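Database export, one record per block. Field names are fixed; values are copied verbatim from the stored entry.
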Amino acid sequence: MTENNNQSAAYEISTDHNRLEVGLIHQYLSQDSYWAQNISLEVVQRSLQHSLCFGVYGLDGQVGFARVITDRATFAYLADVFILPGHRGKGLSKQLMQAIHEHPDLQQLRRWVLFTRDAHGLYAQFGWTPIPEEMTPKMMQLHTPDIYEKNR
C-alpha cells in the first residue's frame, strides 16, 4: 500500500521509501541542482534514510522529489525539492507542496525553514514568508559550501 498518496491525472505523490529512485535523485542533485553539485551517492543515501521523503511518480517512474528533515513535533527543514524539466508546468510542484503541508506527521510544527534561490513564488502560495530582517542577526550557521568537492 502506498502511504500518503495524492492522485492527479497520471501522477502520484508517495512517501514510500521503497519507491524512491535513488539513482535519479542522486543524478539530479549532483549534476542539475545548484545547491548540491557533486554530492556523493553515499551522502544522498544517508540523507534519504533520515528524512521524510516525498516522491512524485508518473507513468514512467519518478519525476520529482522533496524531503523534510524534522523532529515531527516542533521543526522542519524543507530540502532538495525538484520536478524534472520534462514534467514542469503541470502543477506538480504545487501538488507536492500541498502533500507535504497535509502530511499527518507535519501538523502543528512551530517553525519550518528552507533556502531557495528562485522559487519564492511557489512557497509564498503556501504561506511561506521571508525571514524578517530583525530575525537574521539571531540566526547562525555553520556552512561548508565546498564540502562535496573536498570529499570527492
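Remark 1: Residues 8 and 95 are 8 Å apart (CA to CA).
Remark 2: DSSP finds five helices and six strands in the chain.
End of record.
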